[in-house]
């Protein structure tokens, strides 16, 4: 962190302290986070968790803080392409970290007891909600989390009451407006699924405009007893968007978390996905797929933190890496001493399409209980030559044969998507990226 | 003009000499059987014809329909009407049989400057051809050969052949692993598809198949060469007497 940036940060931090309505978290929490951030700065390659992540953009680009909502010159039609469906989703739009009521589409009539909206509105409605903020993050004190805690001003808030099954998915759309400024945006989302509730959340992130931008976002999810939370991330932004997103889930007994992360042709993406399994008989499913070309970068760090017995975690990530792109996968399974009878499974398979593509994949198992079943495997290879020849021997050109094999590799994850509009969007995007002719799909 | 003309073909695999000056000629309307002990190079011949990589062609040429096969990619060979039913078909998880065939048929049509088949026409064609080998339609939605039994894989090869309607089909031990009923079904498929414009090369170890698919010529392959050719009675003689007498004949001169 250079001197100028530090000065800017201190200034903005002071300004924010004056804002009464922006006080979403205890001032003490905010202040101590900022203090720690000033001492340690952003992470760097010397830290194990950031070893393979090139953070030079933080030094090379001069960012400014996004300090207020500015959606006056934005219209719905400019974000049309980012939607999954016109009427079949609850749409929450954020522009550089601020809630845009104008661009959101909530039509909540008939949904009486649920809350879907901005964090600020929610906390004003019931101050108790703010106790949740940051409570999932007490052990996460890396620079980006501290930075976020110090500077976020708003985010999505979702509350699903007991036993309520929400039919439509909630789409949290992060827009990085880089038309006029080079912004850093911080955003904090909070999702509360009560006992027995079921909800589907989709997070997407897009940039408009061509300047570089940096979006630092955190989502905290509390999945109470017997709840089912489907959590999707769809990332498909080729512009110069640097995206760092942390998702911290706390699971209580019998809850199910299904997380799916699709990262297609991003510029720079780092996802931290952590689930704290804090009750018996939970299920935690982490699925992910990344497809990288050119100089693109995607980094998935995941943690299945088994703190209670009798739970299952199941992780499958797959990736296709082309050209000079780089993928990082780090899957940590932590089984704490009390977490007996844990089943933890992890697999990461990769296809490298070029000699210059880079993959860093690492399982990280820390097991402190003895009655545990754990397995993991990571592979990287090229396209299977036997299969390629078989397809070609039936008249299929080499290029299409390759595409077919690659899309088959992705399909196993895509076919599990439970939101039809999202599935179609991802399928189309992959077909397009792989140049699959229309008559096949 | 003959449909297939192989002249003096010599091929090495991993510095080992496998085919040693092989000659073979096939005309439209004919069925040729190739028999011979394990490891004499029958599958090697089939694979070299289909264009599999990893073979050093030292000498000789293969002419198919007046074209030099060696200049063509595997897909071009297929599109020009050559088909190989593999001895060991591969499993391809995630690619459905239907999608596979749709792509293959339409890519072949494209190469012949034909419009792609629309979804309905394709479905009708696929159902009809699946029936030919008594393959249940559920197999069409499954991944290519994945979890198929040995016999089901072979049947799937003949189904693909029926879809692509080749001029020349090479069946590499399609009968191995088939029970009697399946053998009849597969042979029946071949017999329905055969006509005066196409030809078959049937590689087999058993005369049994040849009582269903009656060959015009039987060739014995030995040590990378065709050492004896005859009519269908040659297969019967081989079945009864094995290969020793042929070895003696060769060593005799
Ligand atoms: N990739 C390879 N590397 C080394 N040797 C090979 C390779 N492929 C084939 N061969 C050898 O070439 C010889 C001929 O093999 P081929 O499969 O053509 O025999 P075949 O006549 O089809 O036998 P079968 O009746 O058992 O199917 C065998 O000795 C085999 O081991
Ligand atoms: Mg063989």
Write the SSE topology.
The complex is a heterodimer of chains A (441) and B (253).
Chain A: H1 3-18, H2 27-40, H3 57-60, E1 64-65, E2 90-95, E3 98-99, E4 115-118, H4 119-125, H5 143-151, E5 156-160, E6 170-177, E7 183-193, E8 198-208, E9 213-223, E10 228-235, E11 241-251, E12 256-264, E13 268-277, E14 283-292, E15 297-306, E16 312-321, E17 326-335, E18 342-352, E19 358-367, E20 372-381, H6 385-392, H7 398-414, H8 420-433
Parallel strand pairs in A: 1-7, 2-6, 5-7, 6-8, 7-9, 8-10, 9-11, 10-12, 11-13, 12-14, 13-15, 14-16, 15-17, 16-18, 17-19, 18-20
Antiparallel strand pairs in A: 2-3, 4-5
Helix pairs in contact in A: 2-5, 6-7, 7-8
Chain B: E1 4-13, E2 16-26, E3 31-35, H1 42-50, E4 56-64, E5 67-68, H2 74-79, E6 82-85, E7 92-96, H3 97-111, H4 119-132, H5 138-141, E8 143-144, H6 150-164, E9 168-172, H7 180-193, E10 199-203, H8 207-210, E11 217-222, E12 225-230, H9 232-241, H10 244-252
Parallel strand pairs in B: 3-10, 3-11, 6-9, 9-10
Antiparallel strand pairs in B: 1-2, 1-4, 4-5, 7-8, 11-12
Helix pairs in contact in B: 6-7
The complex binds adenosine-5'-triphosphate and magnesium ion (MG).
Judged by helices, strands and strand pairing, the structural class of chain A is alpha/beta
Number of helices of chain B: 10
Oligomer: heterodimer
Mean pLDDT of chain B: 94
* Distance between the ends of chain A: 49 Å
Quick structural gist:
The complex is a heterodimer of chains A (441) and B (253). With 441 residues, chain A is α/β, with parallel strands linked by helices.
Could you describe the 3D structure shown?
Chain A is built from eight helices and 20 strands. Chain A has two domains: 3-384, no CATH class; 385-441, no CATH class. Chain A has helices at residues 3-18, 27-40, 57-60, 119-125, 143-151, 385-392, 398-414, 420-433, and strands at residues 64-65, 90-95, 98-99, 115-118, 156-160, 170-177, 183-193, 198-208, 213-223, 228-235, 241-251, 256-264, 268-277, 283-292, 297-306, 312-321, 326-335, 342-352, 358-367, 372-381. Chain A starts with a helix and ends in an 8-residue tail after the last helix. Chain A is globular. Chain A is an alpha/beta fold and 441 residues long. In chain A, the strands form two sheets. In chain A, strands 1, 4, 5, 7, 9, 11, 13, 15, 17 and 19 form a ten-stranded mixed sheet that branches. Chain B has 253 residues and is of the alpha/beta class. Chain B has a single domain, classed as P-loop containing nucleotide triphosphate hydrolases (Rossmann fold, 3-Layer(aba) Sandwich), CATH 3.40.50. Chain B is built from ten helices and twelve strands. A six-stranded mixed sheet of chain B has the order 6-9-10-3-11-12, with helices on both faces. In chain B, strand 11 and strand 12 form a beta hairpin. The model of chain B has no long low-confidence stretch (mean pLDDT 94). Chains A and B meet through helix 6 and helix 7 of A and helix 2, strand 7, helix 3 and strand 8 of B. The structure holds adenosine-5'-triphosphate and magnesium ion. Residues 13-14, 16, 18, 38-44, 54, 87 of chain B line the site of adenosine-5'-triphosphate (ATP).
